[in-house]
Amino acid sequence: MKQNPDVSAVITFHKEGVLAHPTLTSIERCRRYAELQGISTEFVITLDNPDAETVRVVRSHPAIRSTDQIHDVAYRDLSLCRNHAIEHANGHYIGTFDGDDYFSKNWIVACIENIRWSGEKSIFHPELMVAFGAWNAYWWQVDQSDEHYRPHSLVSMNFWNACAFAARSVFREIPYTISRPGECGFGFEDWHWNCETIAAGYIHRLARGTARFERRKFSGSLNVAHQQNAAIVRPSAFFDKL
């Protein structure tokens, strides 16, 4: 009987083209490092209205295995793509990955070790963020258990990026909310999800010693599109509790 993997790496692609290649290579590096520690990982990929080049790169990538999943969808929405992949995921844990970013090879291993130590009420994010591309910068994210965490600041800013790692049950309990730029005035699906999970009693932590390398763009970025459309974060139970 086929044994379910420990982790499902949920990876969303749209029109990344050749940039999908180094992203998959980076995540495969995380997978192989995890396998050395006895942790198994499947890829659950969504191709959401992709262009032909993205399809070619993803489907022909040497990292893709017969046990991985590739779903062709037409949601035109990152949130619904993640929800779709999570619904089909077999892993006990879920890690979310964007289609043009890179990750330190210890990302999966560090998250598993931390969750097994802290319990499944914890959601983990990379400790260090490194931006490159349109502009270069680096910064450390905030651990909710640290003195630097200020709950009221979440009204005006998002503490954590969209790269999250937690038990699958967390994502099933609190799915992402649709957030197409310019359609309803709401945006920033990861910010809203962070707030909703806190309201439900989950704690956002940092996997110390891990990093995400985030590609910044002058155009074509979902975050930039939300800003250009003057989107705001959706109402959340978290704000009601403040």
List the total number of helices.
Answer: 8
- Report the mean per-residue pLDDT as an integer: 91
Q: Would you identify the CATH H-level superfamily?
A: Spore Coat Polysaccharide Biosynthesis Protein SpsA, Chain A
CATH domain fold name: Spore Coat Polysaccharide Biosynthesis Protein SpsA, Chain A
The separation of the N and C termini measures 48 Å
Summarize the amount of helix as a percent range.
25-40%
Could you give a short account of the major beta sheet? 5 strands, mixed
| Rounded Rg | 17 Å
Query: What is the β-strand count?
Result: 11
**Uncertain spans:** none
- What percentage of the residues does DSSP assign to strands (E)? 25-35%
State the secondary-structure class: alpha/beta
CATH architecture tag: Alpha-Beta Complex
Shape: globular
Element pattern in H and E: EHEHEHEEHEEEHEHEHEH
- Mind telling me the CATH class? Alpha Beta
Order of adjacent strands in the largest pleated sheet: 3-2-1-4-8
